[in-house]
Specification:
Blueprint lengths: L16 E4 L15 H6 L1 H7 L3 E4 L3 E2 L11 E5 L6 H13 L3 E6 L9 H7 L12 E2 L26 E4 L4 E4 L14 H17 L3 E4 L26 H4 L5 H13 L7 E5 L5 H8 L8 E3 L8 E2 L2 E5 L6 H12 L7 E2 L9 H4 L7 H13 L4 E5 L20 H12 L4 H8 L39 H6 L4 H14 L1 H5 L1 E5 L5 E8 L2 E8 L18 E6 L17 E7 L4
Parallel strand pairs: 1-2, 1-15, 2-5, 5-9, 9-10, 10-11, 14-15
Antiparallel strand pairs: 3-4, 6-8, 7-8, 12-13, 16-17, 17-18, 18-20, 19-20
Helix pairs in contact: 5-7, 11-15, 12-13
The protein binds alpha-D-glucopyranose.
Amino acid sequence: MSEHDPSEAPWWTRAVVYQIWPRSFSDSDGDGIGDLRGVVDRLDHLELLGVDVLWLSPIYRSPQDDAGYDISDYRSVDPVFGTLEDLDALLAAAHARGMRVVMDLVVNHTSDEHAWFEASRSSRDAPQRDWYWWRPPREGHVGGEPGAEPTNWGSAFSGSAWAWDEASGEYYLHLFSRKQPDLNWENPEVRAAVHEMMRWWLDRGVDGFRMDVINLISKTLPLEDAPVPDGATLGDAFGAVASGPRIHEFLAEMTREVFGGRDGAFLTVGEMPGVTTADAVLFTDPARREVDMVFQFEHVDLDHGPGGKWDPVPLPPTALRDSLSRWQLALADRGWNSLYWDNHDQPRAVSRFGDDGEHRVVSAKALATLLHLHRGTPYVYQGEELGMTNAPLADASELRDIESLNHLREQVAAGRDEAEVLASMRPTARDNARTPVQWDDGPYAGFTTGVPWTDVNPNAATINAAAATADPDSVLHHYRRLVALRHDDPVVALGDFALVPSDDRVYAFTRALDDVELLVVVNLSGADVAAPETSSGWTGAELVLGVRPDGAVPVPGERLAPWESQVWRRTRPRP
Ligand code: GLC
């Protein structure tokens, strides 16, 4: 299979994926929480945008400790989102419009209320005991007392990664909240049960999976203390649990067991914090049949300071360019990139990488052009196509996310001032991405007829889908053009990438396929800057897309206005 030959390239090289985080997408029944019928109600919007695939964040039955990423039954729909019949109706309606549907697959852990975990915790001799990671207290310590945890690991959502189970007298591992116990993938019964569940969903008509923190499923044995970072009290388990010794084997086995012998156009994407380019090539090499693409984290971690995401630092001007172009080149011959600016775990793209004030529209378009003209499969997170911005988070009462709430509580307990902690959380809190989608300028932005579970951004009066649909110059219509361009022009999907030297504030590159060449130039700043030297050689080229704050038509080689973006196309002589 050649990924450079349009006739042989997999279908997802030309596809754009749209992520739906159902709780905040659209509410059909007035309970204030988005649901599956709400998604069906909004398919016109998605069809207008032209996206090929919908990725549904978890809708399974769940205590909702981590907004559905804690699943208590993989084969049912949580009543807040509807019923299995509603899901079938969504699959049918999406398929009728030519859109595929990919489910979130959360199998590094289950909820502690899942029947598997309940059986596992029931006693030390339970047949399913070994489905999770149980360990006795540290030698010489009494279980439940501080310091008795089997290893020094911290969990992602604060505190130890081990929870004490008084009844059975052992600890269980949870890399996320204590209501998210980690499954033991070393146990073949666990793997078989997951494979069977996945096949059940494919039989029901779903078109693939987005695999949650899938590179954490193979842990390095034995589980041991990890280095404690400066300023921290707990060990950083990451090195011991990310891309462990059997990860490639587990993914290849999953592909074989789940997709083997099936005809159809499926998509798999593995969410992989910390994945390197070298590993990503292996994970996505088509010959290895592991996953089609991975979500890497490098570009969304660039503004993390020494204290991580709650300690943000300004982004150096060339950081994005250096990182994204490195990924383009590393996966040029083997493997495939996924392309994203944001999702339900990240702040809004325009607030983080653009300018959500004066230049909101033009910078949102610049970011969109940049991402969608790369080689890879682009992902659009709900509301990104409207240029939705971060939430105000003016008061701690606006926070809903377990990660935010735990962090705030921990810091305040340690003596820090609440207002100061909140201020430090504002740029990166996951709550930013989780405000309701702004559909119109009516009550609660048309998201619900009831009272929404979390505040609607006050800028909904001006930033909303109805206004964007009516305005041909909106961010929405720009996204629509970008999606169409990928469908129509093979060079956008498959062309080779090359970086073009430019001012530090500019990201410029070419894409080339056979005799067609594109030049992409994006000013990633609010300043007026020189165009790359190369640009002047493109006089006479066709302007595919050009966006300037003053609405004027760009000219190759002329100085770039704030957040200006250009895409040029020309025929080049065959080598
Ligand atoms: C992934 C999800 C995130 C969740 C975590 C634990 O990173 O995207 O929302 O909290 O995994 O499941």
